[in-house]
Amino acid sequence: MGRLCLILSLCALLLMFGGTQPAGAKTENQPGGNTDKTLSPYFFVQSDDPTIDRLPLKSTRAEVKIAGVTADVTITQVYKNEGKNTLEAVYIFPASTQAAVYALRMTIGERVIEAEIMERQKARQTYEQAKEEGKTASLLEQQRPNVFQMNVANILPGDEIKVDLRYTELIEPEENIYEFIFPTVVGPRYANLPAQDAPDTQKWVENPYLHEGEPASYDFSLSLDLNTGLPLAQLTSPSHEIAVEYSGRTQAHVTIKDDRKAATKDFVLHYRLAGDRIETGLLLYPGPEENFFLMMTAPPERVKPESVLPREYIFIVDVSGSMHGFPLDVAKVLMRDIITNLRSTDFMNMLLFAGGSAVLSPNQSLPATEGNKAKAVSWIESQQGGGGTEILPALKRALALPKTAEVSRIIVIVTDGYVSVEPEAFDLVRRNLGQANLFAFGIGSAVNRHLIEGLARVGLGEPFVVLNQDQGPKQAERFRRYIENPVLTGIQASFEGFETYDLEPLALPDLFASRPIVLFGKYRGQPTGRIIVTGKTAQGDFRQVVEVSEAAASPENSALKRLWARHRIMRLADLNKLEEQDERVKEVTALGLNYSLMTPYTSFVAVDKIKRADGQLVTVKQPLPLPAGVSDLAVGESRFKTAGAVTMMRDLSALKETAPAVPEEAKKVEMKLAVTEIRGDLSRDEVEKVLKNQIGLFEQCRRTASSQAQARPGGEATYRVLIQADGAVKEVTLIKSILGDPRIEECFKKAMERLTFTSGQGLTEVVIKITC
After folding, report:
1. What does the DSSP 8-state code read for residue 532?
2. Over the stretch 469-506, which tens digit does the pLDDT of each residue have?
3. CATH for 305-483, among 3.90.1310.10, 3.40.50.410, 3.40.718.10, 2.60.40.10?
4. How many CA atoms lie within 13 A of 683 on its CB side?
5. What is the distance between the alpha carbons of residues 376 and 634, in angstroms, rounded to a whole number?
6. Which pTM does this prediction carry?
7. Structurally, what CATH architecture does the domain formed by 50-274+599-621 represent?
8. Contact 478, 464 (CB under 8 A)
């Protein structure tokens, strides 16, 4: 009986996922069979069938060519079937948030198939039909502006299939530094959306992941050719070790070490031009049907910090499971640096969120005294990270906090961005921001840049990404430089003797940083006349003139048409997230089809004309490595019934063979957390909601001790938990336990200490019983 509680739980979990399927059946390497499950990532489990190669993706290679301010990127994915069954491979991968994806090519042996751009639904139907007919086909779909899904069907045993996709993007300098980013991995997304009714664009969230610290299961390499046109002064990478070969003062060839761990963090390249110059001016592309231009002009100089008015800072900090460890450690360094340097005339408040949220001062922001700053720093320093990532309720609560009168409000959100509700978050900020500016800090080696950049864009602020511990103080200093300088406001562009139309953006936004003003558009006739940029600073009027006749019109600038279309598509898609309109959808679709670009409504599909298989195949979802520094909590807490169960099944493989038969009524055994007593300001519903959202913490404790199988029959433990007014746990005491294992008792205690509840007026005492 000493192992009964553990074995019953194991059997229930095994039943949840069903039995094995015959070789050659249409399956996926993921848990299933639970109709009420939510979309969440899960841990990959290697198949026990040696005839199936579960990892068909063999390598990913990126070739980058940067010329001036544009980058052209080719990503080559090689799929190989070393098993005995025909495969369909599904692979989720990232790209730049600014990427204009414009081409796809599939190579099978010596046959090359160029993909067609189609409406999304038609492309999917074309792919599914080819798959059923036994034809090899590939389908590229956009799930987010920076998340793509590749499907490759009918990979025969022995096949090696190469898929190339190409995109272009604009490189905008900031503080005289040019930055190129190549994202390598999509981090796990927290979601509470039911899987059964989820739309097609959400289902990618349910993806397998390797455990923390494990390298990618495929080879990864990157090479980059840089041609700046002006002398290079500095070339570095804060993310990877690079090898650089120079060929003259303006050209360089960059490579990274071929290492599977290189695929667990985004590749970042920084370079400066001689004399700290920003390459400004005008690029022209005279096309066969349309002419395009791109203007980049430098912003004004900074002003002295003492002229800046007092500010009110609202800090929103993610302390969820995916932030556990390295990301939260970096966030602590960042917040300590920013908060301790606030001026005595400033005000501040802080909201911490995971499954729930808590506020430092619910009724009003606090003056930035030394005592209040120390209180805020101490609070964030005490956090360990745990629970889900309920970002929408946290944003709503923070945006509704009472505003301090007659000061400028700045909202700062710190997160890794591992959520799947980006459109809803953008909408919430856009509708509730008021007169504030929002700055978003992404923490980690592979953050969700779509969320970070999008929040800053709709919040009229700036995005920041902190890759590692060393960058915390540097980015904090950079943030201070931004906010200490008044913006360039009222920016307008006018045209004399230069006939333009279809400008992007429609209105130039205010500027916070030393980055150029960027304007896309089309023009008619000869490129003559000039562009005049005006605005206002704290020092007075601002005016710059760009002479059109001095710009060189070249067919080599063809990327401008795709960059223009990409910017227009992003703007229309943003508007559609606020209020969907059929006309807007039609316009985005037409732009994608006319300019051969990936959009939310267009996809690339390539189909081999030769029938090569009988239509019977095994579907394999390619597992992704966790981003460097991200713990298993990013996956395990998101999905108790899958991630936790899969890990438990792996750890208890020996018990799987020896478990005795279990009565039907015992098969329903599962871990339960129950509130038996509650005294104080918080309601029972509020406490139970937090426990439900963060049950993965306690399930991990049970898995930690599971291999020893020391839990006693009917195992349970009861704890008394004191919750402070700010929602943090003050004290946890073990009242009674019949678990029979001190390790799991202590682990449960520490899990209780990690919980964060909603704030109240005073102490709340809760008695919680854990039963397995």
Report:
1. E
2. 788 788 888 887 777 665 677 788 999 999 999 999 88
3. 3.40.50.410
4. 3
5. 25
6. 0.70
7. Sandwich (2.60)
8. yes
